[in-house]
TrEMBL record:
One BP annotation, GO: DNA repair
Gene encoding the protein: recG
Catalytic activity: Couples ATP hydrolysis with the unwinding of duplex DNA by translocating in the 3'-5' direction; ATP + H2O = ADP + phosphate + H(+)
Keywords: ATP-binding, DNA damage, DNA recombination, DNA repair, DNA-binding, Helicase, Hydrolase, Isomerase, Nucleotide-binding
CDD domains noted in UniProt: DEXHc_RecG, RecG_wedge_OBF
EC number: 5.6.2.4
Species the sequence originates in: Succinatimonas hippei (strain DSM 22608 / JCM 16073 / KCTC 15190 / YIT 12066)
Entry's Gene Ontology molecular function annotations: 3'-5' DNA helicase activity; ATP binding; ATP hydrolysis activity; DNA binding
Membership in a protein family: Belongs to the helicase family. RecG subfamily.
Function: Plays a critical role in recombination and DNA repair. Helps process Holliday junction intermediates to mature products by catalyzing branch migration. Has replication fork regression activity, unwinds stalled or blocked replication forks to make a HJ that can be resolved. Has a DNA unwinding activity characteristic of a DNA helicase with 3'-5' polarity.
Boundaries of every Helicase C-terminal domain copy: 476-634
Protein name, entry field: ATP-dependent DNA helicase RecG
Lineage per the UniProt record: Bacteria, Pseudomonadati, Pseudomonadota, Gammaproteobacteria, Aeromonadales
Helicase ATP-binding domain sequence ranges: 290-454
Amino acid sequence: MITSDAQIKNIDVSNLKGVGPKISSSLNRLKIFSLFDLIFHFPFRYQDRTYISKVSDLTTDSGSVLLCLKVKAVEGFVGSRGKVLKILFADDTGIIEASFFNTYATFVHNFTSGRRVLAYGSIKPDYMTGRPSLVHPEITFLQTNETVTTEEFLTPIYSSTEGLGQAILRKTIKTALDLIQKAPLPEILPKNLNPYGMSLSDAIKGVHYPHPQSDHTPIVPQKLTSFERICYEELIAYQLCLLLLKVSNSSHKAALSVAFDSKLSDDFLHSLPFKPTLAQLKVFNEILEDLNKDIPMARLVHGDVGSGKTLVAIMSALQVIKAGGQCVLLSPTDILARQHFAKCSSLLKEFNVNCLLLTASERKSDRLNLLKAISDGSAQFIIGTHAVFQDDVIYKHLALVIIDEQHRFGIEQRIALLNKAPQGTSAHQLVMTATPIPRTLQLALYSDLEVSTIDELPPGRCPVITALIQMSRKDDVIARLNAVCSRGTQAYWVCPHIEEGENDDVASAKSIYEEISHKLPHLKIGLLHGQMNAKQKNMVMEDFAAGKISILAATTIIEVGVDVPNATIMIINNAERLGLAQLHQLRGRVGRGSAQSYCLLLHNADPENQIAQKRLQIMRTSNDGFKIATEDLALRGPGEIIGTKQAGFDTFKVADVTRDHRLIESARNSALYLKENGIKTAEELIRRWFPQYLTARDNKKDGNSVSQSS
């Protein structure tokens, strides 16, 4: 009998009845290793084989249907290559034609006149007559007097892989479901926090095999009550992780108390070639109040693109460094890390701050020297990528952790970096995002943090003028680029894909690069995409920043942080395919200086696609990131705002912030209740859904418990 999650997580799929090495290997490719993984591999759609339709009731919109038919006539092979087999079937209400593709000659012999079959397939209009027809149905041959039985539940269709057909996958998952029905998973969620009135095991079975709707309309797995019940439990567990992190941040372990050095701050401000905004100074003062305490700061700074979050971070780091602490700034990309390093080195040069760049692309000999400087404390401000929290990076006295573009990192990565503080102490943490975060998402993503907002842009910035242009006018855009770039203007041309995909209307960065290079041979055109190595990407960006490249064809890799003030034109190919937040981020790469900048959204938006049309119009009429974030939440849910690759949510098995944001506040309240009243339950839930968090927590020196009060 299963008495704990640990048991089901320790049952390897290879130990299940009927699972041999080949099936096990295929399951592993789907990241299914244990019985626990298997039962949470949910279907993405269903087939309804629970009732038999009549031919007379079919329309071209009937979708997929199950029919009990008799063979009326074999019409033979048709088409230019003679590979489409046409067969007429009938029931007692009418006749229907079926098309079979890529069949073989002997297949025809099975269809003798009058033979009964059970056919499941999709209904499409016949291209000649417009009448409903069956397209390549699955056929089960029946005996003359055989009784036809239908399924009790909907038939699940799963994401699969080569060598793992649906029948095998269904059978394997059914074996796993039978096990947990005989020995259900432990019920961790208290009844008073379970508004769905069903156990986790029953909910799991309900997602794999739901009953059909009474009117047999299609069911989406994610809209089932049983699916929501599972998401709700996982969201509670995630909120408990955030609460635990907040407890850890404000634990008894002291952080460096930084006394505000007003002269240092004044000297730094006077060294700047510009004056910070009042919003920047307000947020800086909020950070100073936190740093002055020996309780570790945990603060999020969010603001629009170009609002000056990095400057606030550098001002804060200078105070910490002069108080004797080390600072680290974590960036999501090598390009952005190098830009931050250049900016920090320049602004802090006259204050004798030793800045150091650490990325994964450093040579081994150079890396050893860098690690020595970090460990002996001579490196005061360390800027880098994921390399900054690897095991071999030892800090002498890390006091402030700054994380840029926080939505690119997960909880475990934040913890890994915070764990670098000296034993017995905690580091202050300051996380930044250029995406304005509505209240709902603050709860979902950052409820362990205090929130500061920079809602003002530096003076002298002209709002970017945005225009919508049909893709058919691309040649006009290239001609205009020729005129302005020949005078020294620089431009980005961004494409959603690196290479041509299955959609021919999506121009790739490579093809745009080749097209512009051919049409504007006298201009230097650059190419930038994620498949290039770090050295290649850095060389391209350095050349672009230095003005050696006039037009940079790129993927959305330049979405975050790239800052070239002389680039005043942003062209986005197939803009209708990108979300509002991503479009706004890309537009934020221009308008960084005092010159008027422009964003051209090239699109093929279908006039009937209301969401795409509204999104483009919002971009055309507004430069306000906070307004755009609010519109985004209303249009598409939070997924557009935080991005599809939000690292903190990559570890979700079932829940999705985009889809389930309405559950978050309730889940947060339940998590707060559990934290205060059910310590054991809280940790069991976290261990079920996010064991990697507890592992990271337990690895932390002098680990904290959920029971500690915040």
